Every structure is written in C-alpha cells, then in structure tokens.
Recover the amino acids of this structure.
C-alpha cells in the first residue's frame, strides 16, 4: 500500500526516473527465488541498491522474522527484532523521500503484532528505541545513496549474501550523461541500448560476498 501511494505521488516524473515500483506478488517471487537454495535463511544479509519504497527489503525482513519466530516457537521480542533488522537488511537509493518510505515500512514490519510488554518497553525503557536506519542500513541521496558513487559504502562492500533489486529501467537520451553510464565507461562495460538497469546488474556484483546470489528484475531489451 505504501509503495502504491508513493508511486502515485511521482506522477509525470516516474517515466523520467525509470522508477516503477514493484508489486507485492513480484517481490514475493524474487525473494522466493533468492532464498530457495539458502542453507540458513537467518544467516542471509540482504541488500537492495535501488530500494525505492522498500518492497524487496520489507518482504525479505518479514520472511526472516517469520523464520526466527518459527524456530523460537513464539513471537520475537522487540529487542531481537531490532537486532535482526540492523544485522540483515540494507539498502540505498538516490531519493530521500523513497528512503523515508522504506524506513517507515520497515518500522511497521518491526512493530507488527507486538506483545504488550514490548509496547511498554518502547514507551518506558530508554534503552529500547527504534533503530535509526537512514545513514547506516539505508543510504540515501545523490552521493551516498547512488549505487555508482564511490561514497556508497554498501555498493562495493562485497559482504552481502543476497542482493535483490528492481533497478531503474531507463535508456538515456542521446548526449545525456549519468553516473551509471560514466561508471560503465570507466570500467570498460558495454551496455545494450545504454540501459541503466544493465549497469546496475554489473555494479551490484561488487556488493556480493563470495558465493552470494544476485536476483534482479530487468527489462527484456537486455536479452534481445
């Protein structure tokens, strides 16, 4: 719902940005594929280099949370939920507003079905606070949030076991420059139709740990 609301506010800018937000059923499919061969879902670290409004990250987090509670046999306390979120879910995007929606969506997933004791702890215990995600787990802005920027610490970390993303689908106009094309040229990478999503496919390899998995939603034009 939040993703749909955010997309409606993009309006005419949506096509220029190539920012088409992912429906829930497609996000579920991508997470299913990414996790299907996992030896231990709770050991996965997930990164989305174009997180938008956070549909992949919230879907993955809910999957991790569900598995943790299944093993425990009961709902996870708030402190353990916060640790799970901080240690396993990461993203970046150039849009400040999109990253705010991502953080808010993750907070809602974090708070879902809390027990009264957890609610009391959030209200009364100064040591129990919602984690600050932006600037640490979620990097944002045209510098730190840009997947092709050397200042994006996540994009070249080579630490994530699972990278999920629906990167921008854009074929720049003649003469147009952007960081994706510049990065591809500097690294000697030929991009079919100069498709920005293709540049993301190559760049996000730099964020993967050895043996990690890359699951992307890409335009058919790259294959054709």
């Amino acid at each position: 719902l939040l993703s749909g609301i955010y997309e409606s506010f993009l309006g005419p800018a949506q096509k220029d940005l190539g920012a088409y937000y992912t429906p829930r059923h497609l996000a579920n499919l991508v997470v299913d594929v990414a996790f299907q061969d996992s030896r231990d879902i709770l050991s996965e670290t997930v990164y989305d280099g174009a997180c938008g409004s956070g549909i992949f990250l919230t879907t993955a987090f809910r999957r991790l949370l569900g598995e943790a509670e299944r093993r425990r046999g009961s709902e996870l306390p708030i402190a353990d939920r916060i640790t799970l979120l901080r240690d396993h879910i990461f993203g970046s995007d150039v849009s400040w507003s999109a990253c705010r929606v991502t953080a808010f969506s993750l907070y809602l997933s974090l708070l879902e079905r809390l027990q009264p004791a957890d609610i009391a702890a959030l209200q009364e215990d100064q040591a129990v606070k919602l984690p600050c995600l932006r600037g640490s787990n979620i990097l944002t802005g045209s510098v730190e949030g840009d997947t092709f920027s050397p200042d994006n610490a996540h994009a070249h970390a080579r630490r994530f076991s699972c990278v999920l993303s629906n990167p921008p689908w854009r074929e720049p106009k003649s003469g147009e420059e952007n960081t994706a094309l510049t990065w591809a040229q500097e690294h000697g990478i030929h991009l079919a139709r100069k498709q920005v999503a293709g540049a993301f496919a190559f760049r996000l390899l730099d964020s993967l740990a050895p043996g990690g998995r890359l699951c992307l939603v890409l335009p058919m034009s790259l294959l054709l």
